[in-house]
């Protein structure tokens, strides 16, 4: 069992927008943004076998990577995002430390993938007012699906637009 909660890191010199996204994600997942600096990924994985890493594309969050070194898996998302301030114009923190996951339409196919990654953090709860909703793209073209965060029925952001998703077997961190 991982005791520290969700750890979120970035590439070595993140843009301001990427840092804001990491803080937003940490707030809603009751996680902790970790300043990486020059620390090699191997050293981080020695302390935290499961992390979320945000990589950039042209100064914006472009890839979201869920590393699970216990199962030797990497869930790779190609993304674009809307920050909390762009969704609800304020910062909303998950003081409960719990989140409910909901899957709609064709996103149900990804349920086990996400539950398996997040279960060790102890944050998943059916009773939480904070929700992480996986919403299908009904238009059929463009994004694969959306990940939208809610508190009650209000969208709080961030909004993650998932353009593609891949699950890879890994040996050593890259």
From TrEMBL:
Keyword vocabulary terms for this entry: Ribonucleoprotein, Ribosome biogenesis
GO cellular component: ribonucleoprotein complex
UniProt domain Brix: residue ranges: 4-173
Entry keyword annotation includes Ribonucleoprotein: yes
Domain of life of the native organism: Archaea
GO BP term, example: rRNA processing
Recorded GO MF terms: rRNA binding
Role description: Probably involved in the biogenesis of the ribosome.
HAMAP family listed in its UniProt record: BriX (MF_00699)
Name of this chain's protein: Probable Brix domain-containing ribosomal biogenesis protein
Organism (species): Methanofervidicoccus abyssi
């Amino acid at each position: 069992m991982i005791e520290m909660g969700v750890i979120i890191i970035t590439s070595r010199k993140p843009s301001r927008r990427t840092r804001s996204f990491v803080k937003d994600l940490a707030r809603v997942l009751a996680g902790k943004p970790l300043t990486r600096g020059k620390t090699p990924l191997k050293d981080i994985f020695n302390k935290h076998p499961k992390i979320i890493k945000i990589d950039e594309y042209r100064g914006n969050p472009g890839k979201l990577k869920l590393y699970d070194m216990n199962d030797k898996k990497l869930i790779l998302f190609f993304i674009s995002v809307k920050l909390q301030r762009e969704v609800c114009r304020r910062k909303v923190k998950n003081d409960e430390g719990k989140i409910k996951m909901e899957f709609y339409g064709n996103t149900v196919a990804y349920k086990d993938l996400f539950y398996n990654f997040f279960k060790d953090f102890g944050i998943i709860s059916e009773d939480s007012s904070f929700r992480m909703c996986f919403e299908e793209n009904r238009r059929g073209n463009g994004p694969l699906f959306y990940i939208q965060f809610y508190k009650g029925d209000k969208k709080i952001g961030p909004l993650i637009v998932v353009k593609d998703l891949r699950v890879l077997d890994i040996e050593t961190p890259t």
